[in-house]
Design goal:
Shape: elongated
Number of helices: 24
Number of strands: 0
Radius of gyration: 31 Å
Structural class: mainly alpha
Strand content: under 5%
Distance between the termini: 86 Å
Largest sheet: none
Length: about 525
């Protein structure tokens, strides 16, 4: 009973410690660290340094994975730039394993004593609170590792457990599967490696079993990441798949070398790490580092085909495709004339989407797809705003400045037109499909759809003949609105009172859409 409690207590302290370290470091490495990661993806060396630092600080490749996924989601980083950062973050997590391989019981006791006294003397709002909590977590982690080692040591004298270990030695695959299960449960390879170090220090596990346990844990960690990303889609899930491939490839390489060494007697993995460090705990830490480096070497040179595979497994969603600017790129800002021309093209591309919010060709557009079209267009417009603002920092000539300011005004009008047209479609979708309401809906959709198509012709084809026509259609809206309100009044007696207000709102939104179209047309002339 005492043995079990010692091991469980050690595991409990270890998990509390690693959670405390991770939480504190996340607070200490907030927005500024995320900005550093976002910039690092543009250069291999900076990606390697930043990734290693991220793994070193967060001690969780899963945490780094989902930070990068969030950066990709906000367009601060692309998948291609995130892959090398994530690969090297796995290498950074080796620090914890090396730390656990040392006999640091006195350090653990000192950390717990110092942080406990500091927390008692300081207030909860102290600027050093997260730093103190992180050090306490480290102390608990090291103390937990020592308790696991102490608790497991008596097990080597129990005959039943000896028989179980002997059985496991005869079936190496069992150690790999055990490592996979533990990693899926703990969601961390380094955690399993540290536990394995504690078991090996007690003399419970030999080098072969421990290495296979760690190799299996690496596979389990990759599977765990893929499972955690099951609710994601598109490019966000691609990074989780890359992490899974990274882990499996590293384990495949090391397990293959391990089998060759044991089967053929070639001096490979075990011989190499034993020549560096004769201690078993040091050898486990080195094997863990080799495992991560094998993943880096096995994936980064082939990142393009691996990314292609991830893209096939989780293709970009419709929202992601529509949210990607078609013409903007940062290098164009160095030539303001080219940049403003590209910005014009991007604005025209968004204007051409407006009729699709109210299709009149028999296409049924549900609220979900209408939301996707609107939200993705708003994201591109935000990118366009940022692009136009940055363009002014390059000191363009007066002509470009005037076009820039004019285009910024157009962007505001385009955004309002998109939102108002979207609101018309959403409101019409909520109404019952009676004969009268259907007639009103068709009139609204047909009329506004034609006006928006004419606007698209004016901007995409430079159709000068369409401009006077559109001016006439949008100049005096009295006749259109009077006819629509007359239809609405006829329908008012038959329609449920709860549907009358949405119908009235449609006329208001329609009036605003036509007014915005005219304002936009005037800026284009």
């Amino acid at each position: 009973m005492e043995i079990t409690l010692n091991i469980l207590c050690g595991l409990g302290l270890f998990f509390i410690g690693i959670a405390g370290v991770s939480k504190s470091l996340r607070q200490l490495t907030g927005a500024s660290f995320r900005r550093l990661m976002a910039r690092a993806g543009n250069h291999p060396l900076s990606a390697a340094a930043t990734g290693t630092l991220a793994g070193l600080l967060l001690q969780s490749s899963n945490a780094v994975t989902f930070i990068i996924i969030s950066l990709i989601g906000t367009k601060a980083l692309n998948t291609k730039g995130g892959i090398p950062i994530l690969a090297w973050a796995n290498v950074g997590t080796s620090a914890l394993v090396f730390l656990a391989s040392m006999n640091l019981k006195l350090v653990a006791l000192f950390l717990l004593a110092a942080t406990g006294i500091s927390m008692h003397l300081s207030n909860d709002k102290s600027r050093y609170q997260y730093f103190i909590t992180g050090l306490m977590g480290l102390g608990l982690l090291l103390m937990g590792t020592d308790l696991i080692k102490m608790g497991a040591k008596p097990l080597q004298d129990i005959e039943t457990f000896k028989s179980l270990i002997t059985f496991a030695v005869n079936y190496p695959l069992l150690s790999v599967v055990m490592g996979m299960v533990l990693a899926i449960f703990t969601q961390s390879t380094s955690t399993v490696a540290v536990i394995a170090i504690g078991m090996s220090q007690s003399g419970l596990f030999g080098i072969d079993q421990t290495l296979l346990l760690v190799f299996g844990a690496n596979i389990g960690s990759g599977i765990s990441t893929a499972l955690m990303a099951a609710n994601l889609s598109g490019t966000s899930r691609q990074l989780a798949y890359f992490q899974c491939i990274f882990k499996m490839l590293g384990s495949f390489v090391l397990i293959s070398l391990f089998c060759f060494e044991n089967g053929l007697g070639w001096p490979l993995v075990k011989a190499s790490i034993a020549s560096i460090d004769p201690k078993l705990t040091g050898q486990i830490a080195l094997a863990y580092l080799a495992l991560q480096l094998a993943g880096v070497i096995g994936t980064l040179p082939f990142s393009k085909p691996i990314l292609g595979l991830c893209n096939r497994l989780s293709p970009p969603t419709k929202h992601e495709e529509l949210s990607r600017p078609q013409y903007l790129y940062d290098q164009a800002l160095e030539d303001p004339q080219t940049a403003i021309a590209l910005a014009d093209c991007e604005a025209i591309d968004i204007i051409s989407r407006t009729p699709n919010l109210l299709p009149f060709d028999g296409t049924l557009l549900d609220d979900k797809h209408r939301d996707i079209l609107l939200n993705s267009s708003l994201i591109v417009l935000q990118e366009l705003r940022s692009f136009l603002t940055e363009m002014l920092d390059y000191q363009p000539d007066l002509e470009v400045v005037e076009r820039n300011l004019k285009l910024q005004a157009q962007v505001e009008l385009i955004e309002q037109l998109l939102m108002t047209t979207h609101q018309i479609g959403m409101t019409l979708n909520t109404l019952p499909k009676t004969t009268g309401i259907t007639q009103i809906s068709n009139s609204v959709i047909e009329g506004l759809h034609f006006i928006l198509l004419t606007l698209v012709d004016c901007v995409t084809e430079a159709d000068k003949e369409s401009i006077p026509l559109l001016e006439v259609m949008t100049d005096d809206r009295t006749e259109i609105m009077d006819r629509l309100r007359e239809m609405l009044m006829k329908e008012a007696n038959e329609v449920d009172q709860s549907n009358y207000q949405p119908l009235l709102n449609v006329t208001i939104f329609l009036d605003r859409s036509i007014w915005l179209t005219r304002r936009l047309l005037l800026t284009l002339k």
